[in-house]
Specification:
248 residues; globular; mainly alpha; 77% helix
Length: 248
């Protein structure tokens, strides 16, 4: 635990020093939200709610992709610069090194999420959620962020360069566009609708959207199953990969 706390402090300090990365993690989701609300929002109909209320949950999930990409890059940077080799000579576990990167990712995502919600309110976002529903929505987002951050850490371990790590993170940014983040699934062609309905991001977005807008939750257990399962697999894969390079 002491080693993990130390590594968490190290990763957070690195994030503070790389301030431009933190700014981009906040600015890009906000710009995306402004683009969809003000440019495309007038042409997209969700039938039962304003478009800003519809799109905000999708943007919140999209934030996690930006944060996860930086996690993969940070892990790769440690591996390629020999920092991991230095840690191997110390009496600490590899788990603590990855934990530092993951917790720093969660902290960055929490900051980005707060900024997106604040700007969304200025744009007209009016959630109907109770305090309990807010807690449930944020809890689900936290679980999903943890899962995606551990997956990014695994990508960071296997990537050969920082540039390739950022390329692996591209897939995390692309998948939300094939979900119900920006348009209702019912408006998609049948083949694309099947892809959108059977991927992990759509249940997460639909559950967060239902909670924030005071609607019935129909995919909560599915969202928990996807996020929890992804977390278990990603955590096991990341620690196994890191253990392999630590034994070289």
């Amino acid at each position: 635990m002491t080693a993990s706390v130390t590594m968490i402090g190290r990763s957070i300090r690195l994030s503070r020093r790389n301030f431009d990365l933190v700014i981009m993690a906040i600015v890009l989701p906000v710009l995306m939200m402004a683009l969809f609300v003000y440019v495309f929002g007038g042409a997209i109909s969700t039938s039962v709610q304003s478009y800003v209320d519809y799109v905000v949950p999708g943007i919140l999930v999209l934030c996690t992709g930006y944060g996860a990409t930086s996690t993969a890059m940070s892990v790769t940077d440690d591996v390629q610069k020999g920092v991991v080799d230095r840690f191997r000579s110390m009496p600490i576990s590899g788990f603590s090194v990855l934990t530092g990167h993951v917790v720093a990712s969660v902290a960055r995502n929490a900051l980005a999420t707060s900024a997106v919600v604040l700007v969304a309110v200025l744009m007209g976002f009016r959630p109907a959620a109770t305090v309990g529903e807010w807690v449930l929505a944020m809890g689900l987002l936290l679980l999903y962020v943890l899962a995606l951050s551990w997956l990014a850490a695994a990508f960071g371990v296997i990537a050969r360069t920082v540039e390739s790590a950022s390329l692996l993170g591209f897939f995390m940014l692309f998948i939300p566009y094939l979900s119900s983040a920006f348009v209702p699934v019912a408006t998609m062609p049948p083949w694309l609708r099947a892809v959108s309905e059977h991927q992990p991001i759509t249940p997460v977005i639909e559950t967060v959207r239902a909670l924030l807008n005071g609607q019935p939750v129909t995919s909560g257990w599915l969202a928990l199953a996807w996020s929890g399962g992804l977390l278990v697999v990603a955590f096991g894969w990341a620690t196994w990969l890191f253990g392999r390079i630590s034994r070289r």
